[in-house]
Amino acid sequence: MTESGAQLFARLEARRCLKDIEPRLFPEDGGPNHGEVVELYGPEGTGKTELLYHLLCRCVLPVASGGLEVDVVFVDTDYSLDMLRLVSILDNRLSAARSAGSPSAAADEAVLRSCLSRLLVVHCSSSSQLLLTLHFLETTLTSRPGLALLLIDSINAFYWLDRSEGGASFARQEEKLSKCAELLGRLLRDYKITVFATCHAIRRSYSGSSSASSSSSTSSFASTSTTESDKPFLCRPWQRLVTHRLLCSKQEAPKNMAATAGGSKEQKTRQVFTVSTASSSSSSKTKTFRSSSYYVTDGGVEFIGPNTKVS
Amino acid sequence: MVVLREGMCPGLEEGLVRDLRAADIKTVEDLVSSDMEELAQKCSVSYKALFAIRRVLLAQHTAFPVSGADLYEELLSSTAILSTGNPSLDKLLDSGLYTGEITELSGGPGSGKSQVCFGVAVHISFHLKQSVIFIDTTGGFTASRLLQMLQTETRNTEEQMEALQRIHVFRLFDVYALLDCLYSLRGGGLQQASVGGGSVKAVIVDSVSAVISPLLGGKPNEGMSLMIQVAGVLKTMAKDFNVAALVTNYLTRSGGGEVQPGLGVSWSHIPRTRLLLERVDKAAVFSPSSLRSATLIKSSRQRCHIRAEFDLKWWSRSEDTSSSRKRKLEETDS
Q1: What residue ranges define each of the domains in chain A, with the CATH number in brackets?
Q2: B46 and chain A: CB distance < 8 Å anywhere?
Q3: Which among B56, B305, B309 is the top mutation candidate for probing chain A, defined by the most A β-carbons within 10 Å of its own β-carbon?
Q4: Can you give the pTM of this predicted structure?
Q5: Mean pLDDT, to the nearest integer, of B323-331?
Q6: Which of B127, B174, B178, B132 has the alpha carbon at shortest distance from B149?
Q7: Exposed/middle/buried for A242, CB within 10 Å: 0-12, 13-18, 19+?
């Protein structure tokens, strides 16, 4: 294939490395390197999309406000991107950064616009469209050297459609996602971008009920980090791409809290989300782990303390 | 999957399609993913021509990236928040149903799911003067109940009829009919329904679980795929036409015994906002009460597990309670 000088330059010029995108999520010195894939895995309502917003904000915010100032592509296969929520998080971060400095609110609006213009959103409604869109994004990648992050929410959105369409043959069922994964692999090698993708759990976690019946187990989830429901289920080519796997979970809100709350506005304990990361970096063959917890507030994700252990 | 046909784009002629097929290139995806140089040799066509074809096909079938700034601008001008007509529900939902999103009501039998749907439909058609699509899959829809609700709003029969005309009802009892209906609505039916009066602002499916749950027993792949298709068309319709989608779901009990919305984990990601409706049982009272409680169990805007009580009679302040209700209404107005 022919390649113009500008394209070659965009391809080979070092894109921003996102190793420091969120140190609190990854093992020490184990952030995602150039061309690595991070999977956020968990059942509904465990803060996967919220974490994506957090990372997205970190990337598009200007350096002065604690951001990285890089371009981001958000591939929305679930139609889950809530722009209003994203803007409110950005707003919060900007005003927090502003209180330290000086400027006015009018300038903030302009900064917000410039942040949002660093974001590209693509909506896909089938896996073949996803594949074609990834092909198309290659031209976007060549034209925007500032583009360093690709977010996919979620990678398994078309899982059941593909399974059904593929008929009896397992290879055909997985064909499209495999092709997407292969293409993504090539884009990662050629353009050195970083990918974060969410993956929904497709099986109900039974760990909760089993621990309830067997009286011996005391802590509900810390011990059962990889239960049956957490097993990767997507096709092999995708599994091979993933170097970091973030398991998302939330601590169940105490039942009596919800019951006593009523209509009154009393202070309730906040829901705590936990994410445990397993990284297998390319340099060392060993796996490293880290777990951290956070609240979700109006201003987005707020990590709890510097400690890595959750009691 | 898009099969290659002649005339899809300039340069893609019958002979070339045949040659491509011989080289095992049958779909647009195949063509786009294949090595252009190799393929040009195999089909004895110039590399340049083939590359041009690839580019056009790609542009035809890709989803285009939109700048976040533009998307936000568009969203600000197009998003509407539709009040449900009930202040306590509105409070839970952060002032109402948002267009472009799916909101789910889950609850057991008699928890008031359908009544809330009726109330919302009446409120949108009468007060907001917008059209509503009501898809009834359980046979539970009764026009007389809607009329009853409207009668408490106005005594003017003409106004009542106008409001009723803005509610378009579809009665379907299986998932294929539902998909057909949703696809045809997305493919232009929504604009047609908008002709008489306001534009369609809400699509209500009561209930979505009634047509989907029978599928989940047999062949899992097929059932799941149909479920995701229903979800997909609802989501794209909500986004593209700026309508609020309101669906109802039943409840199941998990292995641990706690109540959870039905249709399993794959569905659980679909609605953006979810309310759990329950009866409020006061042990002493045995007469059926219209008091219900709603708990917010999923939301990206508000803290979850907020609970509020509301009265189903709110939408139809029936004769015996009308005076007290009216007083309450006046209080809230002033």
Answers
A1: 5-251 (3.40.50.300)
A2: no
A3: B305
A4: 0.85
A5: 42
A6: B127
A7: buried
